[in-house]
Structure formats: C-alpha cells, structure tokens
Design goal:
The complex is a heterodimer of chains A (about 270) and B (about 140). With about 270 residues, chain A is α+β, with helices and mostly antiparallel strands. Helix content of chain A is about 40%, strand content about 25%. Chain A starts with 5 loop residues before the first strand and ends in a 16-residue tail after the last strand. Chain B is an all-alpha fold. Chain B is about 35% helix and about 0% strand. Chain B is built from five helices and no strands. Classes of the chains: A alpha+beta (about 270), B mainly alpha (about 140).
Chain lengths: ~270, ~140
C-alpha cells in the first residue's frame, strides 16, 4: 500500500503552454494544486490532475463520502471548477467524477493505453462547446394558477370546484402547447447552429431549484463560433408565448458529448 | 448510514461555506447531472467509479427526478436500502424470510406426500405439487 497521496484526474487535454499556465492558478479538490501529467511516450496528451489525500479517497472512505451530499457537492463543484478553468484554454475531455489513480505513473499508463481513442475524441470535439437548454412551464403542477377565474358564486360548491379544476387544466394545456411550440423553435435553432444533441433527465426533484415545471432538458454541442447566436436565439424561443420560459446554460465543457467509442470495462 | 440522504437536502452548505470555496454560477443539479452521469468513464485504480457511481447516480436521480416518477416506473428499491429509508429497518430480515420460505417448502413437501403416489386414472385429480407463485419482493438493483 502506498502511503503518499493519490492522483485525482479531472480531464484529458492536448498539451499547450496556455493550458500549463492556466492550471497553475487553479485549485483542485481539497484545495490541492492542479498539475498536468504528460504521457510516458512522445504524445501531445496530458491529464489534468491533482494529489488528493489517501484517507479521503480510498475505496471505503470515498464511497462513504459520496453518500454525504454536502461532501459530494463540494467535490462536484471543485471537479467542475477545474474542468471549466482548463476548458477555457483548450478542448478538454472531462472525466467522470472521482476517477482516482494510485499515482501519476498509473495516469501515464492510462494515457498511453487509450491514446488513440482519447485523441480521436478530442479531435471530434475541437472548437465546440456544450450549451444546456431547459424548457419550463410556469404553472407548477398542483398549484392553482393565479390567473384562474374566481369561482362563480351562483354555482353549487361541487360545480364551482369542477369548473375551477377545468380552468386550471385549460391553462396547463395551453402552457403545454406553448412548451411544444418552444421546443419546435429550439429544434429549428439547433438545426442551424448545433451539431449534436443529448437529452438529459427532466429536473423535478428537490435539487431542481428553477421556478416552474421542467419539461425538457437538453444539451447541444455547438461550434464555438455559433455559441453566442445559439444562446441568444434559444433565449428568445419563448418570445410571444405565455406560460413557458427557457433557461439556457453554458458554455460547458463538452461533458455530455465526451464518450469514448468503446465502452471501457477493463479494470487495470 | 441511518440518515437518508434526502433529509440533509435542507441543510446544504451555501456556496461560500463549501470547504473548497469554489465559485461557480451553475446550479448543483446541472453540475451533478454532468459530472456524475456524463463525461469519459475510465476505470481508475480506486474502484469506486463504475458500480458505486452508478448506484449513487440512481439515488441522485431520485432527488433530481421525483420519487413519484420512479415509483411509476416500478423503481422502489430505496425502500429496502437502509441508507435511504427508515422503513427498510422494519422490513423482514433475510434470515426471517429464509425461515418463512423453508417452512413453506416443508409444508408443500408434506402436502405433496399426502395423496397416494399413483397416477390419477381419470385425469381429473388435481396435482398438489404445483408451486405457488411468490411475487418478487424486490426488483433487480441495476434496473433503473
């Protein structure tokens, strides 16, 4: 068993002076300094990595920590921060959270083993960014819309209730139609600007903090030159529609599109 | 872990109180769905990343997607997971379930031995050896 720190890997990128300089200023998880791990053989690939304490990142400890949402949030934000900082200077392949090696030599071996796959994927993503587009219904399900008509006092309570429910339903249906219209517009915008789309799960749980009900959650791979146009047009996709709004996030590093051609199943 | 993860959602540290103090404008759900569910998957030396991350992702999906939705899809294993549900503690233990099943098997064996072993001649005598179907008590874990 090694006593020293383990190596946490955030991303793989091609080496550049700008990237090397950028990583010097970045703090990794647990505040550790970020460095680049070059491969053993002559190649342009590097891994963006930092030392992490063995006590926190050994199997058992890591498994326990990951169940702690506060710890997980800190790790996820730190991981994302490093990916974001390096993606500003270079195309990067973000690695799945908590990819940890015994030391830098093991990282080198990984870079060598998967050199061609990693390089090929980097080349495909070169010059692209990821943008997230979420569509929300403003009417939260289960709550009475403010614009619902006041109950007619001449109606019996039962009829008034039913009529009220009907009115609520109508408003929701209208908002759904508006959302479909917005989705259609975004698809048209994507056809002009984006090269790929990835669907994410709709955000509905307690972590979904946005106002309204999320009805679609997509990521688009967009050439960097089109990112501003895509963002502006997507932001306006709900213009003239009532009951829906759109949330555009990014640019992100291409998380949703960074996948190696072959499923990686072999353990080292 | 006796504390369901959902119980701690209300006490999330604010960004500035995070131990690593990393500023980021992105919201947590957007980050988690990317860093946990996306990105390059390479097996590291610390063997946590594949199975455990997947399990964790499923748990977080339940926070990001609603529990009701998961139930609609027939996913309810967290009710058996002690780290996620206090109800799991009330569920019968494996030993208990084994004991019950053994008793049932014994009862069935005794039952089956009662009628004479001869073949039914008219072909109407009901066979007693058919096993009662026991509903599956929990879906497969990796099913989500």
């Amino acid at each position: 068993m090694t006593a020293g720190p383990l190596t946490y890997v955030y991303a793989v990128a091609r080496h550049s002076v700008a990237l090397a300089q950028a990583t010097h200023a970045v703090e990794g998880v647990t505040g550790s300094p970020v460095h680049l791990v070059p491969p053993a053989r002559d190649s342009a690939l590097v891994a963006v990595a930092s030392p992490v304490p063995e006590d926190d990142f050994r199997e058992a400890a890591l498994r326990r920590h990951l169940e702690d949402l506060a710890w997980l949030e800190a790790l996820a934000r730190a991981h994302h921060h490093v990916v974001e900082a390096t993606a500003a200077h270079s195309t990067v392949l973000p690695l799945r959270l908590a990819t940890v090696y015994l030391d830098d030599d093991r990282v080198r071996a990984m870079l060598d083993d998967r050199h061609d796959l990693l390089l090929g994927t980097l080349e495909q993503l070169d010059g692209h960014v990821e943008l997230g587009v979420k569509i929300y219904l403003d009417v939260a399900s289960g709550t009475a819309p403010a614009s619902a008509p006041a109950p007619d006092p001449t109606l019996s309570p039962g009829r008034a209730y039913l009529r009220h429910r009907r009115a609520e339903q109508d408003i929701r249906d209208a908002a759904r139609q508006a959302a479909e219209e917005a989705a259609g517009r975004i698809e048209a915008i994507a056809r002009t600007h984006a090269v790929q789309r990835a669907r994410h799960r709709i955000q509905e749980g307690e972590l979904a903090t946005g106002p309204g009900t999320n009805v679609s959650n997509d990521a688009y791979l967009v050439p960097a030159a089109h990112a501003d146009a895509f963002r502006i047009e997507a932001t306006h996709a709900t213009d003239g529609l009532t009951g829906v709004h759109v949330d555009v996030t990014g640019p992100w590093a291409p998380y949703s599109f960074a996948t190696l051609p072959d499923p990686d199943e072999d353990a080292p | 872990m006796t504390d369901p993860i959902a119980n701690r959602l209300g006490s999330l540290p604010s960004r500035s109180a995070s131990p690593y103090n990393q500023p980021s404008s992105a919201n947590l759900a957007d980050i988690l769905e990317r860093v946990l569910d996306k990105g390059i998957v390479i097996a590291g030396d610390i063997q946590i990343n594949l199975l455990d991350i997947e399990l964790l992702t499923i748990k977080l999906r339940l926070l990001i997607a609603s529990v009701d939705k998961a139930k609609e899809m027939g996913i309810d294993w967290w009710e058996h997971d002690p780290s996620l549900s206090s109800r799991a503690h009330a569920a019968p233990s494996l030993e208990e379930e084994n004991r019950r099943l053994r008793e049932q098997i014994e009862a069935l064996r005794a039952d089956a031995a009662l009628p004479p072993v001869e073949e039914p001649e008219e072909g109407v005598a009901p066979r007693r050896t058919a096993r009662p179907k026991r509903p599956a008590t929990r879906p497969a874990r990796g099913d989500a």
